[in-house]
């Protein structure tokens, strides 16, 4: 009986010591978001054979990384024209001429954990005999997408670019509680801000149409925010 007790005590001691020596499990962390390099934002590419480049992402676990690039004709990426996955930090695509494109990249490790997508860059491919390029789709400044406001007024703010740097841009603004918004509350305005009245417990939608002084126009995506 004593021998059995001694063996039980020794076994329990060895088990407890074994747990102390067990290595701690390392938590996997997603790689960092890639930084885009080329083509630079809002660039006019003189060739439709475009070389894309981005910086190497870091992975604190030292995992191998695969990059996914998406090229689309809209900022919502609902019309993706090119996509590819590779361990390289570059990709070459031949695209249509005289067309605006938007591109982004994300990184994924071998445990299938992904970064967020990079900042979206835009560019135009040049076209034969083109005398005017349409403005790029506008970028949202505020209110942030899907944000919640506690206020009775909101300042709508955006930015817009055009590769024809001498073009003068004006804006039509649509705003309301329907999606897509149909009420035009700003017409041919030269400033990229507009104050609007809002009420509580509503969801608002708005979009901007960017127009240049040569008759070209680009319809922006629909943005939204809510009020408490």
TrEMBL record:
It holds the Pfam family Ig_Rha78A_N. It comes from the Bacteria. Residues 1-22 form the signal peptide. The keyword Signal applies. Residues 30-128 form the Fibronectin type-III domain. Keywords: Signal. This is DUF4962 domain-containing protein.
